[in-house]
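ok, trying the design again with the full structure, not the truncated one.
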């Protein structure tokens, strides 16, 4: 099979319009270690000044693509603590669909220009809106009075820095919605993840070198690692053009695993996942297991140990780093240019004016330097039966759509 394809973005001068401070994918893998602590501090400072996000009974998280994947983490964290949270694809917030009640709606978009997320805003009562973005001055941020920014961090086209930053920010947001400050548990995260990466990287590279004939990837995770599985599947599709699917452990056991074939299996978890991984490897299928548990070696099975003392948010970041590195390793083996996407979907991002591009580039120039271091009706409003039509400042900007990949 071939993993090469024509890059339609080469013919589209606006394809990267929403990425004003782009860094190479491999640089992002390293830059995120130093950027993460910076983003955590920046987000924690903003949350400390934010009002109206606690207490909550039914928060909803909206996003597309990687942002939707990341939203699985705060949903899990809040539900573990008795708060019924849920996540929805922003494209499902439409005037012809019944919408759930909500007392707070977090819209997530790293670029702040995801068309579907912005188009959902007029259907959400302004008082309920909050957003998490990387790009501070963006269309989505202009729709919300409560907004949190990662700080205009440089990022790769297939996201590295902004995704792990979004995961950490959503962990902090979940804590803030419970009236707690969780930033302390992230202290020292850069050093811990650096050690973890150094330990995992030789195993990752060996998997890519030994399994160049894989045709697809199944990523199977327990409920705590849903965000990692979904982001991993997206990365394999984006970075090395490899079909990939994310699923949950229990659902995978109900028939999905019967087509194991020539797939690479990535299993995340420390319960039934261990038996699943050893079963797949025992049948001759290549399998990578990320777990806290010591698992005896066997053919076709690679085990990467996660530190069982770190909290769930950091576990998701660490596991996502494995997905990033493994997708990049396969791309290197197959000779794929990670910086090029195959298709440019011009309706997934709102565009930037020339003035906005210059202003945003100026704001983020310092961040770029640091990243180079090695280490319509009232009845359809979400959460409200009555719209606030008087505050035009919260209306979504017109959809001046342009190209730029399929990220969020």
């Amino acid at each position: 099979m071939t993993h090469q394809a024509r890059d339609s973005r080469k013919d589209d001068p606006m394809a990267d319009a929403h990425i004003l401070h782009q860094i190479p994918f491999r640089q992002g893998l390293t830059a995120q270690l130093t950027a993460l602590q910076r983003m955590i501090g920046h987000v924690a400072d903003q949350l400390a000044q934010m009002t109206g996000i606690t207490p909550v009974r039914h928060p909803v998280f909206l996003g597309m693509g990687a942002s939707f994947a990341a939203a699985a983490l705060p949903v899990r964290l809040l539900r573990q603590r008795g708060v019924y949270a849920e996540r929805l694809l922003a494209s499902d917030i439409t005037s012809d669909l019944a919408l759930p009640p909500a007392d707070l709606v977090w819209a997530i978009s790293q670029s702040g220009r995801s068309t579907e997320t912005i188009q959902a805003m007029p259907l959400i009562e302004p008082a309920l809106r909050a957003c998490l973005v990387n790009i501070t001055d963006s269309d989505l941020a202009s729709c919300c009075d409560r907004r949190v920014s990662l700080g205009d961090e440089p990022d790769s086209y297939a996201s590295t820095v902004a995704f792990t930053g979004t995961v950490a920010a959503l962990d902090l947001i979940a804590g803030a919605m419970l009236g707690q400050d969780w930033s302390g548990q992230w202290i020292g995260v850069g050093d811990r993840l650096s050690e973890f990466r150094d330990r995992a990287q030789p195993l990752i590279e060996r998997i890519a070198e030994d399994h160049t004939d894989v045709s697809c990837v199944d990523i199977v995770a327990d409920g705590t690692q849903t965000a990692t599985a979904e982001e991993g599947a997206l990365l394999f599709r984006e970075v090395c053009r490899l079909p990939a699917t994310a699923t949950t452990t229990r659902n995978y056991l109900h028939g999905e695993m019967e087509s194991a074939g020539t797939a690479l299996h990535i299993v995340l978890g420390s319960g039934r996942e261990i038996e699943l991984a050893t079963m797949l490897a025992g049948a001759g299928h290549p399998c990578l297991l990320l777990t806290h548990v010591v698992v005896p070696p066997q053919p076709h099975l690679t085990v990467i140990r996660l530190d069982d003392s770190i909290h769930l948010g950091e576990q998701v970041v660490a596991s996502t780093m494995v997905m990033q590195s493994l997708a990049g390793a396969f791309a290197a083996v197959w000779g794929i240019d990670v910086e090029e996407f195959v298709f440019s979907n011009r309706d997934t991002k709102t565009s930037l004016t020339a003035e906005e591009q210059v202003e945003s580039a100026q704001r983020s120039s310092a961040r770029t330097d640091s990243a180079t271091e090695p280490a319509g009706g009232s009845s359809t409003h979400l959460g409200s039966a009555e719209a606030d039509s008087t505050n035009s400042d919260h209306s979504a900007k017109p959809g001046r759509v342009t190209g730029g990949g399929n990220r969020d």
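Keeping the full-length input from now on. The radius of gyration is 21 Å.
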